[in-house]
Design brief:
alpha+beta, Hypothetical protein yfbM fold, 4 helices, 47% helix, globular
């Protein structure tokens, strides 16, 4: 299962900006849980979620907080940095679509 991200202006979902595979999504699970607590928005791995650019920035900040708690030599640390870069590459409103 993948979670695909599109610009919110891409109404027909033609161009995937980036995707999170199952491993990346599981790595991001603590961030997703904290994000839901702070915003009430559920990032659904099997549905559709709209994210305002402010939410994208919050996700980046939550990833950065989690990264500071991890050992730099771990695979989890490296995976979190990869996922952070995916979000940081886009400063716009997004639609996340799961399958």
């Amino acid at each position: 299962m993948a979670l695909d991200f599109y610009y919110s202006s891409d109404k027909k979902l033609n161009s995937v900006l980036f995707s999170l595979d199952d491993i990346e999504f599981e790595t991001l699970r603590p961030v997703v849980v904290q994000f839901r607590k702070l915003t009430g928005i559920v990032i659904d791995q099997y549905g559709k979620t709209r994210l305002h650019h402010v939410h994208v920035q919050l996700i980046i900040e939550l990833i950065e907080e989690l990264v500071t708690l991890k050992n730099e030599s771990t695979q989890l640390y490296k995976q979190l940095l990869i996922v952070k870069e995916k979000f940081a590459s886009v400063n716009a409103d997004l639609i996340a679509v799961g399958d």
